[in-house]
Every structure is written in structure tokens, then in C-alpha cells.
């Protein structure tokens, strides 16, 4: 489960980071620094690996806090763009997502700008695993509990409640205002939908970079429970060993990079 989460995060880096680099450099060439495979390896070696080698999860608190701020910035921009992008959308916006299982119908401009708050069709079922995955965090519960200064069930419950509430509000605001911005033209990848309206937008480029930063800094946090489990399987009764710690970390990152590349 966590291994799949790591792979999905690195997939985001693989496909989004080249777009950001090309936009900042205003170049469409196929240089090595715009190759997603090379960039995944570079990010893994230079950022993810050093953070993943930290002994305790508590050391990642600062990076986790920064990644949270990046996502807050993302939500703020999504809300701001809702009131900046006109409805109906510009005429050059032609990439409209439609349900292939249903016949396409012509809608007026008024209807296209009217949101549908309840939609049930054959595609609805695909949203269930996505919603479930968004709140999957139980593998990190025990490491988080070990980092608490005052370890108690009440304090752990408070941490869980605040975390879930905060994430729920952020997910809800991003999804709601993202949908209200584009309505039926919204795509599965929200940031990609914005690129259909703006050819070049500095704020959206910064948002893309912020999301990439948040995703990258999340990988070491997700890796920590996996390494702990493997470490217990290989040497539960042994003292902490840096060579074993490093080997497990490198092996996990090599495996997930092979899968992504």
C-alpha cells in the first residue's frame, strides 16, 4: 500500500517536473533535464534519499510542515482562480471531458455554467478508491505515536482528529472550487485543466512547483513505516544498525524507481 503510494508520488514528479522546467526555461527541446526518468532519479538521490536516511520520523516534521504550506497555497490559488476565470470558458477551450459511456449532448452556455452537485453514473465508482486512498494513513500511526512527547490515547486521538479535519477541509475546498471553475469541462488532473485556459501563467507554475515539492517531501514519510516493518522482520531483536538502515532504504528506493521508470 505505502509502496504504491510512493510510486504514485514519483509518477507525479516524473510527468509534472518536466512541464515546470520547460515552462520556466521557455524551451521545448528534449534535453536530459526535461526527461522525466532522469529527473526522478535526480530528485530521489538529491532530496528523497537524504531525508529518508534520517533515523526518527520526528526529524521530518519541518519538511512535512513545509509541504503542508505548499498544499495550502495550492488551495488558495484554486479558490482565487474560481473568481478570475470567466464562465462560459474561452472559445479556444476545446478539451472538454465527457463521459464516453453516455451520448454527447449539446448544452447551452447557461447550462454549462450550472454546476451539478450530485452525479451518479458508471464513472462514479472510480472515485471511491481515490477518496479512500486520500485518507490512508494508518501505517504511520505507530511511528507518529512514538514521537509524541506525552504518549496517551487521548493525545493521539486529538492528533488524528485535527489531521483528518484539516485534510478533509483542504481536499473539499480544492475539489469544490476546482469543479465550480470548469464545471463539465473539468479534467481528472485539475492543474492540467488550467493549462488549457492559460498558455503561460506564473502563479500556476509556482503552484505546480509547490505541489511537486509537497509530493517529494511526502515520500520519506511514506517510506518510514515500510522500512520499519522490513527492519523488524530482518532484525527485530537486534540493536539499531546504520548499515542495515541504509541498505533497506536504498533497496526500497531502487525498487520504486525501477517501477516508475
Automatic annotation (TrEMBL):
Coiled coil: none annotated. One of its GO terms (molecular function) is symporter activity. InterPro entries: AA_transpt_TM. It is a multi-pass membrane protein. One of its GO terms (cellular component) is plasma membrane. The chain crosses the membrane at residues 37-53, 59-80, 124-142, 162-182, 202-222, 242-260. Keywords: Amino-acid transport, Cell membrane, Disulfide bond, Glycoprotein, Ion transport, Membrane, Sodium, Sodium transport, Symport, Transmembrane, Transmembrane helix, Transport. Residues 1-260 form the Amino acid transporter transmembrane domain. GO terms for biological process: sodium ion transport. It comes from the Eukaryota. It catalyses: L-alanine(in) + Na(+)(in) = L-alanine(out) + Na(+)(out); L-methionine(in) + Na(+)(in) = L-methionine(out) + Na(+)(out); L-asparagine(in) + Na(+)(in) = L-asparagine(out) + Na(+)(out); L-proline(in) + Na(+)(in) = L-proline(out) + Na(+)(out). Signal peptide: none annotated. It is found in: Cell membrane. Belongs to the amino acid/polyamine transporter 2 family. This is Sodium-coupled neutral amino acid symporter 2. The gene is SLC38A2.
Amino acid at each position: 500500500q505505502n509502496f504504491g503510494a510512493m510510486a504514485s508520488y514519483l509518477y507525479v514528479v516524473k510527468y509534472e517536473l518536466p512541464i515546470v522546467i520547460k515552462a520556466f526555461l521557455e524551451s521545448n527541446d528534449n534535453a536530459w533535464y526535461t526527461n522525466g526518468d532522469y529527473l526522478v532519479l535526480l530528485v530521489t538521490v538529491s532530496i528523497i534519499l537524504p531525508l529518508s536516511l534520517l533515523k526518527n520520523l520526528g526529524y521530518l516534521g519541518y519538511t512535512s510542515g513545509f509541504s503542508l504550506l505548499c498544499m495550502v497555497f495550492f488551495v488558495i490559488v484554486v479558490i482565487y482562480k474560481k473568481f478570475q476565470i470567466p464562465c462560459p470558458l474561452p472559445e479556444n477551450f476545446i478539451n472538454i471531458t465527457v463521459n464516453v459511456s453516455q451520448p454527447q449532448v449539446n448544452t447551452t452556455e447557461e447550462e454549462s455554467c450550472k454546476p451539478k452537485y450530485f452525479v451518479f453514473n458508471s464513472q462514479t465508482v472510480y472515485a471511491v478508491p481515490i477518496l479512500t486512498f486520500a485518507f490512508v494513513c494508518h501505517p504511520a500511526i505507530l511511528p507518529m505515536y512514538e514521537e509524541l512527547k506525552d504518549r496517551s490515547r487521548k493525545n493521539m486521538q486529538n492528533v488524528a482528529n485535527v489531521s483528518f479535519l484539516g485534510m478533509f477541509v483542504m481536499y473539499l475546498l480544492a475539489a469544490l472550487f476546482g469543479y465550480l471553475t470548469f464545471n463539465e469541462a473539468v479534467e481528472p488532473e485539475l492543474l492540467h485543466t488550467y493549462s488549457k485556459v492559460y498558455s503561460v501563467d506564473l502563479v500556476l507554475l509556482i503552484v505546480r512547483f509547490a505541489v511537486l515539492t509537497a509530493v517529494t517531501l511526502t515520500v520519506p514519510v511514506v517510506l518510514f513505516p515500510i522500512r520499519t516493518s522490513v527492519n523488524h522482520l530482518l532484525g527485530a531483536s537486534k540493536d539499531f544498525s546504520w548499515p542495515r538502515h541504509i541498505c533497506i532504504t536504498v533497496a526500497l528506493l531502487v525498487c520504486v524507481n525501477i517501477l516508475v521508470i
